[in-house]
Amino acid sequence: MEIERKFLVNELPQNLDSYPKTRIKQWYITIKPAVRLRERDGVYTFTVKSKGHLVRQEFEMELTQEEFANLFTKVSTHAIDKIRYEISLDNGLTAELDVFLGKHKELNLVEVEFETEEAAHAFTPPAWFGEDVTQEAKYKNNNLALPL
Amino acid sequence: MEIERKFLVNELPQNLDSYPKTRIKQWYITIKPAVRLRERDGVYTFTVKSKGHLVRQEFEMELTQEEFANLFTKVSTHAIDKIRYEISLDNGLTAELDVFLGKHKELNLVEVEFETEEAAHAFTPPAWFGEDVTQEAKYKNNNLALPL
Fold first, then answer.
1. Is residue B19 annotated as a catalytic residue, yes or no?
2. For B77-110, how does the pLDDT look when each residue is reduced to its tens digit (9 = 90+)?
3. Do residues A84 and A94 lie in contact, with contact meaning Cβ atoms separated by under 8 Å?
4. What is the pLDDT of residues A113-144, one digit of tens each?
5. Residue B44: CA atoms inside 13 Å, Cβ hemisphere, count?
6. Min Cα separation A33/chain B (Å)
7. Within 13 Å, how many C-alpha atoms sit on residue B124's CB side?
8. Of A71, A105, A120, A126, which one has the fewest beta carbons inside 10 Å?
9. B94 interfacial to chain A (CB closer than 8 Å)
10. What pTM did the predictor assign?
11. How far apart are the C-alpha atoms of B6 and B23, rounded to whole Å?
12. Is-contact B68 B75, C-beta < 8 A?
């Protein structure tokens, strides 16, 4: 189970390059349901997410290069391409800031994952966070992915 | 996590039609990894299984008809078509007996699922069970599925 809130970004944090970052590419086999391949620092994963906004069922499995290649033949979308920065917040929380490249170059999104729904509701976003878009389907990565 | 042993069948049980049964059809998007669609009594499911024989990671999610239709466009194999009989054994265990139809018409396989690896190893199969094929890749349904 994944409990997550998602926000637009008012202002990117200072010294962005001082935070740990990775380049992430992901492709969708189907948008609905969200069935996805991801390449991150040479690690390939396969992810399935159920419907939902704040709370979603999620399954993730690491793939060999051969398994990735087999599934890649089923891809229906161009790559989502983004740099993910990991920024520590208070209370042991981490902001995952996604700075998109390519077709969605102007877009930045920040996500925070929580242990419980109570913690998710109680969270007060820092000033650099923008509008809460947790409930907005259009900011889901599967909906941002462009058909081939 | 799924802990399962699989056997050939020496002799089908008497009065087979007295046991609960369902017709199962399943198709593979990829064989490796095993990414599968299933239709069972009008219920559609999507299943991903990791590598492994006795113990495998398994994810299963129910699909709407629309989600099933979207994923069905990605299918690479003909349907596996079988009748599954559920036969109670001792110690609260259940034998799932699959009687295959279509191309694998002569094949019968029986599976038993366990809570723990210890229980799996301790299991003594009834006389109607045949050879233990848990470790034999060729009897996995993904390997039985025929390419389109």
1. no
2. 999 999 999 999 998 999 999 999 999 999 999 9
3. no
4. 999 999 999 999 999 999 999 999 999 999 99
5. 13
6. 6
7. 3
8. A105
9. no
10. 0.87
11. 19
12. no
Q: Do A61 and B33 touch (CB under 8 A)?
A: yes
Our CA dihedral for B65, A44, A114, A146, rounded to 10 degrees, sits at: -50
B31 at interface of A, judged by CB pairs closer than 8 A: yes
Instruction: Kindly report the nearest CA distance between residue B123 and chain A, in angstroms.
Output: 30
Does A70 contact B at CB distance below 8 Å? Answer: yes
Q: What are phi and psi of B65, to 5 degrees?
A: -60, -35
Q: Are B87 and B97 in contact (CB under 8 A)?
A: yes
Q: State the 10-residue block means of pLDDT for chain A, 148 residues long.
A: 94 95 97 96 92 82 96 97 96 96 94 96 97 95 92
Buried b (16+ CB within 10 A) or exposed e, B119-132: ebeebebeebbeee
In chain B, how long is the greatest CA-to-CA distance? 44
Which of B66, B67, B142, B148 to mutate to probe the A interface, most A CBs <10 Å?
Answer: B67
- CATH code, residues A2-144: 2.40.320.10
Yes or no: say if B98 and B83 are a contact pair by the CB < 8 Å rule: yes
- List the structure tokens of B103: 């191309």
Residue B5 CB burial class (10 angstroms; 0-12, 13-18, ≥19): buried
